[in-house]
Amino acid sequence: MQSRVGSFSSLEEGQVPHRIMHQYSKIFPLRLLLLFLLLGVGIVFLYISMYTYRFVSIHSVVSPTPSRIQTHSCVEGSKNLEGWIKPPSALLHEMNDSELFWRASFGPLIEKYPFKRTPKIAFMFLTRGPLPLAPLWDKFFKGNEKLYSIYIHSLPLYEPEFQPSSAFYGRQIPSQVAEWGGMSMCDAERRLLANALLDISNEWFVLVSEACIPLRNFTTIYTYISESRFSFIGAFDEDGPYGRGRYNGHMAPEVNLSDWRKGSQWFEIGRKLATDMVQDTLYYSKFDQFCRPHSCYADEHYFPTMLTLHSPHLLANRTLMWVDWSRGGPHPATLGENDLIERFFTETIGGGSCMYNNQPTNLCFLFARKVAAAALDHLLENSSKFFGI
């Protein structure tokens, strides 16, 4: 009895009997070990869960593999030089004028090209529709395919019918309506220049119409243009109502009366000036606002004035286009079969004098207008005698 009472008294006093203490000491390490084991399993499970979540999240973000591959294929051509210098495979595109002019204004700042480049002449035909003298031009171009390119700006709805064998086949660019004497005509010329500038091989740019013909063979014209240190565009300071009389004082201070120039719209220019003409916005806005038919004709004043202000040292200040103004009127005379005889080519056109690379020469004109479509057969029959083609 006493021992049992003693045992109870020990519990009441907060003491653990020796026998119970011994059993507890055996159980405690097992529970502690189990606790650590469960804790470790929990940590491992938590780590695996977090890793799995991160993997799934990243995979879901990166999962559009086809899109990445598609983008990669689109820019593949830009990873080598060929992707930058290869001309567009087709002239038809969906760029508007702002996008086209911006794209065409790109150009290398290093003068020497790091690849073999054969410079070409871009012949730009500004026309309403058909090119009735195309067979003569085809004969002119034949055999010189690596030295020229062709661009046609016509009415938007016109659909040409050139044969695949023609140099004009597939050479029509996206076009808009161009009105004579207005800025829309200059827009058409800039559109031609911009499309031609997309081909890095085009070095010189010649603007002609459907009524123009070459006056020499291709080799002579290519040599004359390629060896010239100047671009051929007229820019004259002309007094009277048809010159300075068309100037509007609201153009100042960007364009002053002393800057005002006049010249033929048919030009030949180098690549630098072509880029300047495409990227201009300063002078364009002035002419668009204050040079309107019938008090002012932008196609006769905009480019001559702008280039005189921008790069006067690069201008020959004359045109390569022969026209007959002797009959009077706002337009030059139309040349028919009876006008286009051997004497016309040897004396009328070949008998003048001008400056070429600061030296006098009697070869001043390479092209002529306006030539009647009915004269085509006559010109083809005599092309060897007249032009050497």
UniProtKB/TrEMBL annotation:
It is a single-pass type II membrane protein. The keyword Transmembrane helix applies. InterPro entries: BC10-like, Glyco_trans_14. It is found in: Membrane. Pfam families: Branch. Keywords: Glycoprotein, Glycosyltransferase, Membrane, Transferase, Transmembrane, Transmembrane helix. GO terms for cellular component: membrane. The chain crosses the membrane at residues 28-50. One of its GO terms (molecular function) is glycosyltransferase activity. The keyword Nucleus does not apply. This is Core-2/I-branching beta-1.
